[in-house]
Amino acid sequence: MARLPLQTLRSQPYDAAMLLILFAFSSATVTTPMDPLSVPPRFRLEPASFAVVLTPKHTLAHCGVEVLELAYPSAVTTLHAENNTVVGELFRPLYATGKRPAVLVLDIMDGAQVVSRGQAVWLASHGITALTIRMPYYGARKPPGSKLKMVTVDIEHSVAAVTQAVLDARRGIAYLASRPDVDADRLGVLGTSLGSFVAGLVLAAEPKLSRGALFLGGGDLVNSFYDHPKAKAFTQINELIGGSQAKLKVLIDPIDPVTYAEQLKAKKLLLMAASRDDVVPPKAMTALWEATGRPPLVWFDGTHVGGALYAFPAMEHAIRLFQK
User: Fold this and answer.
1) CA distance 189 to 175
2) Which CATH code is given to the segment(s) 56-323?
3) Residue in 176, 182, 164, 271 with CA at minimum distance from that of residue 219
């Protein structure tokens, strides 16, 4: 079934056919209150009410999971209309009873949602409600024909887009907390690779979150990546135009999880990394571990992509964290 834009649901005159379509939808209104001063200014949400629209998608009977498509307005209005609506999927345990924990799941760089959906099914099959969302400029949020991405060599754009991703995630958490079948005291976030960096920021910024699992990520981004072979072309150009490692650090620090280490120390944090990671330098995870007070850290003997070989033990660690 085609997804109707939110404005269509609000303003279209209802005929008989439209009423049949609307019958398949459910909606909720979520209100975000004034943020406490502990929330970093960059990631504060203005008090607002917004609509969340859900559409049934799949029933995975053998896994005991129901999947619903979900949409709500972004907290940020950009020049690209497509990017101003957050889309995602809610994975709800079919057979769990009572209030249960819930987790926001953030995807890897390619954004195909294969990893995050797999993790969400895994969580839901263990009685944990899971929500996956598309980050800015991914999937349906990318303008047609555009090559625009969330993270690019345009630092200003990347910082703004990552900030939007955190605010969008915070609205997703507000929705989870509002559900009558969710225990609002047991909300978490799980991120892998790129999603791990964003998840660290979300965990630091969102007071409702008590715990987070970060897989194949880290912090101290500029110092960790500046000499990385994959970053060499960018750093050379940066220096040719008068930039430096120190100047770049000033620009990137607002979206570096290490910047918010004090907020992360107050949360139940689980770190998981690959000891031979060839994409995210292992020293990035070590830096985050040191800065956040040395929380539990699990090293897997593998490369970045090879981390997929450890999906089972990684998710076992994460599920134990979220079920507590």
Assistant:
1) 14
2) 3.40.50.1820
3) 271
